[in-house]
Design brief:
- The protein is of the alpha/beta class.
- It folds into 3 domains: 153 residues, Profilin-like (3-Layer(aba) Sandwich), CATH 3.40.1840; 151 residues, Reverse transcriptase/Diguanylate cyclase domain (Alpha-Beta Plaits, 2-Layer Sandwich), CATH 3.30.70.270; 268 residues, EAL domain (TIM Barrel, Alpha-Beta Barrel), CATH 3.20.20.
- The protein has an 8-stranded mixed barrel with strand order 12-13-15-16-17-18-19-20, surrounded by 4 helices.
- Helix 1 packs antiparallel against helix 4, helix 6 packs across helix 7 and helix 10 crosses helix 11.
- The structure holds ligand C2E and magnesium ion (MG) (2 copies).
- The site of ligand C2E has 24 residues, from strand 13, helix 11 and strand 17.
Length: 643
């Protein structure tokens, strides 16, 4: 608007200036032309009149016809008509001359100095006069007519003024309209250009989705509203898994196409009030106002389902897996920066554990002070003997007794108390301490198992290995050496490896597992059902048991879907000749259902939480599931078997 007004004002000012200069020049030209024209006309008229007067001026006293009058209309307007001698002496002719002319004497004096009769103009007392003077034939007299230039020019000036005024108004009118039109066009053009530039600076070029800057802005605004209204807010950070492979295999052109399709699918799966942004590379973010943890999970499920459908590219179908990190306001942060950072941490957590999506948890945050402290102290934890093993019983459902225990490591921190393995085991993996940890756990477990066996407590012991252990091809020999040194038969040792660990490096896993199996070590796939392992590999792996992940077992008595999954895993295990263990048995209903479904073994809080060695020995003696079943188990009540 400001530009428009300024432009208009400048245009009008220039138009007025041009018009003024034009008017002055035109006035001057017109004035000169009019004066010249008038004096010439006067002179010609006077020559006629002089001829007419001549006969009356031959003899003195001059006598005019009583009806004589100067009828020339032009001369009637003249201010002064005089007949005079060449030296300026006035001849008394009252019939034709006016005597009341104000400056007559001055004028006559001026004319007297001009010996030749002619026409011209002169300025007396800042008044311009036009005059004409002729000889009266056959006399030595002259006839002179003088009148102020203004009287004659007034009409011309008036006409000229009118014309100039009209021209000026028209020019200004045209100028204003011209200026308005030009300004409007210019403003529209500038506005479009401006809007385009703003759009470009706030959007991603490839997908046309908001970029990081716009996302930050929207998050800050949404945070203000959420704070004012007391509502929650959810922020997703999404990263495509193995997108680099798509780029490397198909080229950047198709990679870009895949990113565009992903952007469209994310937007289509959400509401218009949600903001989908591309932060760069294969990283997207989603802002969902008014969404709490449950809404966030629903949205994440929706997004994963939308992205799970293969994208057709160049005659192929490209499957894209995505990991979503979720941060919630106010739970995980009060500003855009913190929320994004925490969503990022959660996203890596989801990616690392193949979870699909994950909510931010402070204890997994690599940037949290606690985590940094733990990393610094981990090495000492092992050397200073701060690690302890707890043992969770594994009971055989048909035999109704405990057949083994799973060794689960904990860190007895001097100031922070007992720290759970989910928090520090991943840190040992990142800091190259995992083999020391595994070695310690193996050593401690084998020693404890031998010690129990020496006292008649005949239990198998299960040790968890991490994915990193599968890179160590010397591991089987190392385990063999440990068993040999302790004098423990390999069949008393179980090794648990997660599905995803095995699948991450199948060739190595296969070789290590083959060697362990041939030594007589029992092998189990841990957290089965979460890693999407291929059934064909499953059959080839030399594992003895599948451990159904606790997420399916915990609520299987209430959740029909989970009950169906558990039943399918049990059937599958039996069909391929493997034993099956259900972990996460938390209540009687789940246990009864598992017994009914023919599950071989169970593990869970309902039976016993992980206990230290002394507590476990006490539990074994008092529990109905103990080694010697002194205490009768409660009867199984009828429960519906899932279809
Ligand atoms: P995991 O091997 O699947 O161990 C089972 C986990 O489920 C244990 O958690 C156990 O306490 C928990 N659990 C057992 N019954 C129930 C139940 O009824 N309800 C619920 N909600 N949870 C139950 P924990 O001890 O915190 O261990 C977590 C994970 O840490 C283990 O999962 C294992 O992957 C890892 N871990 C533990 N010890 C070691 C170790 O020595 N080495 C390695 N590499 N990983 C270990
Ligand atoms: Mg385990
Ligand atoms: Mg498990």
């Amino acid at each position: 608007m400001q530009i428009r007004t300024r432009l208009l004002a400048s245009f009008v000012a220039i138009a007025l200036l041009v018009l003024t200069v034009f008017g002055i020049v035109a006035y001057r030209i017109a004035e000169d032309a009019a004066a010249r024209q008038e004096t010439l006309t006067l002179q010609r008229a006077l020559e006629n009149i002089a001829g007419y007067l001549a006969p009356y001026l031959q003899d003195k006293p001059y006598r005019f016809d009583p009806n004589f009058s100067l009828r020339l209309p032009y001369l009637q307007q003249a201010t002064l008509v005089v007949v005079h001698t060449a030296n300026g002496t006035l001849v008394n002719l009252p019939e034709i001359q006016r005597t009341d002319f104000p400056d007559r004497d001055k004028l006559l004096a001026t004319l007297a100095n001009d010996p030749l009769p002619r026409s011209g103009n002169m300025d007396i007392d800042s008044t311009r006069y036009n005059w004409a003077s002729v000889f009266i034939p056959t006399t030595n007299l002259r006839l002179t007519v003088v009148h102020p230039a203004i009287a004659a020019e007034f009409a011309i000036i008036k006409t000229l003024g009118m014309r100039l005024l009209v021209t000026g108004v028209v020019v200004i009118w045209i100028a204003i309209w011209g200026a308005l039109i030009i300004t409007a066009l210019l403003t529209k053009h500038l506005r479009n250009q401006n809007a385009r530039l703003i759009h470009q600076s706030l959007h991603d070029e490839l997908t046309d989705l908001p970029n990081r800057t716009l996302l930050y802005d929207r998050v800050e605004q949404a945070l203000h509203r959420a704070h004012r209204d007391g509502h929650p807010l959810t922020l997703f950070l999404m990263d495509l898994d193995r997108f680099k492979e798509v780029n490397d295999t198909l080229g950047h052109h198709f990679g870009d196409y895949v990113l565009q399709q992903v952007g469209k699918r994310i937007s289509a799966a959400l509401r218009e009030t949600d903001t989908v942004a591309r932060l760069g590379g294969d990283e997207f973010a989603v802002l969902i106002p008014d969404a709490d943890a449950d809404d966030a999970r629903n949205c994440a499920d929706k997004l994963l389902a939308a992205l799970d459908i293969a994208i057709p590219v160049n005659g192929m179908s490209i499957s894209i897996k995505t990991s979503i990190g979720i941060a919630l306001y106010p739970l995980h942060g009060n500003d855009a920066e913190t929320l994004l950072q925490h969503a990022d941490v959660a996203m890596y957590q989801a990616k690392r554990n193949n979870l699909g999506y994950s909510l931010y948890a402070q204890d997994q945050d690599p940037h949290s002070v606690r985590r940094l402290t733990l990393i610094g102290e981990l090495r000492d934890a092992i050397s200073k003997n701060q690690l302890v093993l707890h043992y969770q019983p594994k009971v055989h459902l048909r035999q109704q007794r405990t057949v083994g225990v799973e060794a689960l490591v904990r860190w007895q921190h001097p100031t922070l108390g007992l720290i759970q393995p989910d928090e520090f085991v991943p840190l040992t993996e990142q800091n190259g301490l995992i083999s020391s940890l595994t070695d310690w756990v193996l050593q401690e477990s084998i020693q404890q198992c031998c010690e129990w066996r020496s006292r008649g407590i005949n239990l198998r012991i299960a040790v968890n290995l991490s994915a990193h252990s599968l890179h160590n091809m010397a591991l089987p020999d190392h385990i063999a050496a440990r068993l040999h040194a302790a004098g423990m038969p390999a069949c008393h040792l179980d090794i648990e490896l997660t599905e995803s660990a095995m699948m991450s490096d199948l060739a190595n896993a296969m070789e290590i597992l083959e060697r362990l199996s041939s030594m007589g070590v029992r092998l189990a796939i841990d957290d089965f059902g979460t890693g999407m392992s291929s059934l064909s590999y499953l059959k080839r792996l030399p594992v003895n048991e599948l451990k159904i992940d606790k997420s399916f077992v915990i609520d299987m008595a209430e959740d029909e879907n989970n009950a169906v999954i558990v039943r399918s895993i049990i059937d599958l295990s039996h069909n391929i000749g493997r034993e099956v263990v259900a972990e996460g048995v938390q209540d009687r209903d789940a246990l009864q259902l598992l017994e009914m479904l023919g599950c071989d073994m169970a593990q869970g809080y309902f039976i016993s939480r992980p206990l230290n060695a002394t507590e476990l020995e006490h539990w074994l003696q008092t529990s109905p599931w103990g080694l010697r079943s002194h205490n009768p188990r409660p009867e199984i009540v009828s429960i519906k078997k899932p279809n």
